[in-house]
Amino acid sequence: MTKTVIVGTNHAGIAAANTLLDNFQNQEVVMIDRNDNLSYLGCGTALWVGRQIDSYEDLFYAKREDFEAKGAKISIETTVETVDYEQKQVHCQTKNGETFVESYDKLILATGSIPIAPKIPGRELANIHFLKRFQDGQAVDEILSSEGIENVAVIGAGYIGVEIAEAAKRRGKNVLLFDAMERSLPSYYDKRFTDDMDQNLTEHGIELHFGELATEYKGESKVEAIVTDKGEYPIDLVINAIGFLPNNDLGKNHLELFKNGAYLVDRHQQTSDPDVYAVGDCATIFSNALQATTYIALATNAVRSGIVAGYNVGGVALESTGVQGSNGISIFGLHMVSTGLSVEAAEKNGLNVKYTDFEDLQRPGFMKNNAKVKIRIVYEVESRRVVGAQLSSTEDISSVIHMFSLAIEEQVTIDKLKLLDIFFLPHFNQPYNYITMAALSAE
Fold it and tell me: Where is each FAD/NAD(P)-binding domain found (predicted)?
């Protein structure tokens, strides 16, 4: 019998536990988490806070009882204080102050990430919040319902920031969205696409303050104003969504780290300690677009890394196929999806790329139900392999990105896409499909 201790019970830890419990009879599984819940879908927080779904209950997709029925031992509201890697022991403390030690044969670290907290004056004031855990969403939801909360500042215009800005606006608040960058969503999309999102946000009443850096929060006991390098604005609530860093506290002095502090793992999710695996946001991942190890914090990547670690710990040598970082966002009816690298990201990582753009209606012009679709395909100059794609529309074009994800993984060239067999029916698409037309127009 092999005893595996899993620290962290969100997406990656859950996937690792399920893999071990469902496929291997010789596993004793111990799951430990400092939270009072497990398996929270944080990507649904804005939907719930913005009242686009009725409640938060269904954002929890796994129950403690289900794992215990499979034979797992679970300790929640329990903090892992230290790990003795030589003795292979995990030292824990419950919320009641009780301490205990769990020994392990194999250890899976699924400790996730922590929000970046700007160290600026006034950060200790009330009504300044982060968005990560379920409790964070609860706190923001509750304060949005409080009297006197009219002006909301969201710091950070990445996915979480843009989504919570929409949610606060749907709750009738005056929303100011700040970012030090000059546009929203710069990590996944080129300016051609983010210009549309910025216009979309503005048209729906969100006040954009891009190219502004927050320098101070003002107030007596709670925040009353935010100061930037360009001005001062009255504020009742601040929601920080600047980004995340890997949570490496338990292993940073023992395990080899990536340049950003994530645990460096191989394609089996194994760290520099052969008995320790790391999964999810605390670990690195292999990018098929870059053909290199990198860091991409996404729930889908966390799930896949947990599955890979589970099989390898269980004794089945399974290698990760790598990821593309596929993602999407839907704000006020504008849908944007991307996979792989934008032109800007590719160039930043030293890839010599070109791109091809196309824009057209989803269906023939005679169809009443219709909308424009914008596409960009990014490809490497020398190899001509596809390394990225971006699409946007008020149509649901999300499924298209999966094909591009596979194309990147399989190193398909832009030329291979030119005569790809794509069916046509007016109900769905055009005879000259935008994918085909974009590929044909590539240099």
Answer: 3-306
